[in-house]
């Protein structure tokens, strides 16, 4: 049971990261389509963030030369994210199936033990002949 909860948490975290990445890569591709003819200057938007993160001078002008690096097809890792999420779902489904099989096996073993001890319940399925398992064990 603990493994099921653990994998449920893993699937949830993977789903959140996959969603964030899909939104991020969609925004990057939209931005890459705009950058073709113009340059963007982000120095007005992020001076406080850059000064907190680093003391180095960072070039925040985004033109065509940086577009080729950022928008390259090999930087798009959406399929590995989707593959990891689908394998997490597959693993979770496998664990649920395993628990269902274990529960069914436990139920079968318990009913066989009860039948051996005479604690079984006869179901009305027609006539009972004199050699049946139920009739021979009722006197115990």
Automatic annotation (TrEMBL):
<dbReference type="GO" id="GO:0031175">
    <property type="term" value="P:neuron projection development"/>
</dbReference>
<keyword id="KW-0472">Membrane</keyword>
<dbReference type="Pfam" id="PF01275">
    <property type="entry name" value="Myelin_PLP"/>
</dbReference>
<dbReference type="GO" id="GO:0005886">
    <property type="term" value="C:plasma membrane"/>
</dbReference>
<dbReference type="InterPro" id="IPR001614">
    <property type="entry name" value="Myelin_PLP"/>
</dbReference>
<keyword id="KW-0812">Transmembrane</keyword>
<protein>
    <submittedName>
        <fullName>Uncharacterized protein</fullName>
    </submittedName>
</protein>
<keyword id="KW-1133">Transmembrane helix</keyword>
<feature type="transmembrane region" description="Helical">
    <location>
        <begin position="78"/>
        <end position="100"/>
    </location>
</feature>
<feature type="transmembrane region" description="Helical">
    <location>
        <begin position="6"/>
        <end position="27"/>
    </location>
</feature>
């Amino acid at each position: 049971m603990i493994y099921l909860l653990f994998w449920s948490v893993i699937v949830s975290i993977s789903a959140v990261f996959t969603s964030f990445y899909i939104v991020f890569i969609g925004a990057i591709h939209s931005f890459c389509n705009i950058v073709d003819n113009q340059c963007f200057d982000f120095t007005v938007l992020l001076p406080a963030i850059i000064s907190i993160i680093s003391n180095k001078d960072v070039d925040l002008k985004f033109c065509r030369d940086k577009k080729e690096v950022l928008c390259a097809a090999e930087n798009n890792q959406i399929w590995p994210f989707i593959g990891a999420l689908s394998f997490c779902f597959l693993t979770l489904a496998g664990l649920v199936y395993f628990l269902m099989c274990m529960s069914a096996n436990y139920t079968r073993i318990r009913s066989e033990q009860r039948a051996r001890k005479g604690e079984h319940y006869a179901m009305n399925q027609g006539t009972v002949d004199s050699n049946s398992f139920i009739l021979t064990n009722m006197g115990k």
